[in-house]
Design brief:
This protein is mainly beta. The protein contains no helices and 11 strands.
């Protein structure tokens, strides 16, 4: 049974930092690309960052480039998102997701397993 469990969310002031984690289990984690998505109230879910199975290639949404860093530890079956210089607009529920075999990118339909999400709230 595939399971993705996010953690690390919370409340932070603008300019601050948070590190999200996503623990994966129930499948061969190291074989698949992974990504972080987010959804703010009243908005569509959007891709934030993605990473290839070997962790060597990453892609980011323009809105987070230079501020967020995605990484993974295949020995620990864990995905990370380091978020720095947080802005009010970063407030959202953050989800980790596993890509369908061989796919890589920030297209939501390319992902078939999702966690329950962790809330990030940025205040002024």
């Amino acid at each position: 049974q595939v399971q993705l469990v996010e953690s690390g969310g919370g409340s932070v002031q603008a300019g601050g930092s948070l590190r999200l984690s996503c623990a994966a289990s129930g499948y061969s984690y190291s074989y698949y690309s992974m990504a972080w998505f987010r959804q703010a109230p009243g908005k569509e879910r959007e891709g934030v960052a993605c990473i290839t199975p070997n962790g060597r290639t990453m892609a980011y949404a323009d809105s987070v480039k230079g501020r967020f860093t995605i990484s993974r530890d295949n020995a620990k079956n864990t995905l990370y998102l380091q978020m720095n210089s947080l802005k009010l607009d970063d407030t959202a529920m953050y989800y980790c997701a596993t890509a369908r075999g061989g796919l890589f990118g920030l297209t939501e339909n390319d992902y078939n397993y999702w966690g329950q999400g962790t809330q990030v709230t940025v205040s002024s």
